[in-house]
Amino acid sequence: MIARSPSFWYPAVFPFSGSFRWEEAMELYAIRRRSAWANAEELEKAAGVSAKVGNEEMPDRVRWIRSYVVAEPDGRLGTICIYQARDIDSIREHARRVGMPGDEVEAIAKTVVVRSDPEEAAQAAG
Predict the structure, then answer these.
(1) Residues 82-86: what's their mean pLDDT?
(2) Three-class SS of residue 21?
(3) How far is C-alpha 41 from the chain's CA centre?
(4) Cβ-count burial of 11 within 10 angstroms (0-12 exposed, 13-18 middle, 19+ buried)?
(5) Residue environment code for 13-40, b if the CB has 16+ CB neighbours within 10 A, otherwise e
(6) N or C: which end of the chain has fewer CB within 10 A?
(7) How deeply is 95 buried, as exposed, middle or buried, from its count of CB atoms within 10 A (0-12, 13-18, 19+)?
(8) Which residues does 97 contact at the CB level (< 8 Å), separation at least 6?
(9) Which of 72, 81, 80 is nearest to 35 (CA)?
């Protein structure tokens, strides 16, 4: 059994303001959004709203790391998204604000990287 690292509080120093505050550590989560979009345009629009909500409304609660787009059997698009978040409730609140599914959420216990994603490896080599 792999134990999740505990959430804890750590100090975050912001040199521009000279202020000091406590910020809660974030855990990694995977979100599966099945058949959520009819086409790439819908997905792109949702991605823009998602980034805006995360960056402007909830920057201390969620951070979008990456997404994998899935061609679903029904012809629609789904995603598997990786986020950092304070907790599952923050992930679900973000999804609610964006207007997209957020009910299939799993905490990531450990990341095992066998190889870099093919696109990332090609960019690093070039």
Answers:
(1) 97
(2) strand
(3) 20
(4) exposed
(5) eeeeeeeeeeebebbbbbbbbbebbeee
(6) N
(7) buried
(8) 53, 57, 58
(9) 72
Distances (CA, A) of 100 to 3, 5, 12, 45, 57: 30, 28, 31, 11, 16
The residues, ordered by sequence, that sit 6+ positions from 117 with a Cβ below 8 Å of its Cβ are none
Q: Two tokens at 121?
A: 């490896």
Report which residue type is found at 38.
Answer: A
% of the chain residues with pLDDT over 90:
71
The residue with tokens 């990287």 is: 113
Q: List 19's β-bridge partners, or say none.
A: 14
Structure tokens at 44: 């792109």
**pLDDT value at 78 more than 80:** yes
State how far the Cα of 116 lies from the Cα of 52, in Å rounded to an integer.
27
pLDDT, tens only, 26-50:
999 999 999 999 999 999 999 999 9
Structure tokens, 70? 């899935």
123, 83 Cβ separation under 8 angstroms? no
